[in-house]
Amino acid sequence: MIRRARPADAEVLADLEADNLGIDAWSPGLVAAGVSGDLPTVAWWVAEVDGVAVGYLAASIAGDIAELQRIAVDRAHRRTGLAARLLAELVSVARADGADRVLLEVREDNAEALAFYEGQGFGEIDRRRRYYRDGATAVVLLLPLPDGAGGGGGAAGPAVTDR
């Protein structure tokens, strides 16, 4: 099930953040602030399996741009479609809020993530040298959100119905 995050999710999401993003992880305090709604443009979604949070997505939607800031799924639940379902929820909400594109940065050395985003219809538009704390380059990706159902390509087009 995909649902909006609640303040009670902050601790488990911070743990998932640390496990999945290592040196690039946001602090538990920043995760808690985001989940609690203290960061006005940032929204969080949770992927649950059997009532347990096993993945999440954080994004900022402002005007015509949605920015995917975080997405991660616990290793035991990867390759089950949860990341695609989280992304589909973002696309649905972003489109409804008037966004016409989704942007994100991903480490250039993260081949698995790059392949995932390519499969979802994202394309590279730029690179940001020394973007990450360890000096790694970020690849900037764009997913256009044309009007109408099914836009954007890949599994990201349709809305998730099991909120």
From TrEMBL:
UniProt EC number: 2.3.1.-
InterPro entries, sorted: Acyl_CoA_acyltransferase (IPR016181), Bact_Acetyltransf (IPR050832), GNAT_dom (IPR000182)
Question: Which top EC class applies here?
Answer: transferase
SUPFAM superfamilies, A to Z: Acyl-CoA N-acyltransferases (Nat)
Q: Which residues form the N-acetyltransferase domain?
A: 1-146
Q: Which Pfam families match?
A: Acetyltransf_1
Kindly list the GO molecular function terms attached to this UniProt entry: acyltransferase activity
Query: Highest taxon of the source?
Result: Bacteria
Query: What's in the keyword line of the UniProt record?
Result: Acyltransferase, Transferase
Gene3D superfamilies to which the protein is assigned, alphabetical = 3.40.630.30
Q: From the UniProt record, list the coiled-coil ranges.
A: none
PANTHER family referenced in this protein's UniProt entry, alphabetically: AMINOALKYLPHOSPHONATE N-ACETYLTRANSFERASE-RELATED-RELATED (PTHR43877)
Protein's recorded name: GNAT family N-acetyltransferase
Q: What is the organism of origin for this protein? A: Nocardioides plantarum
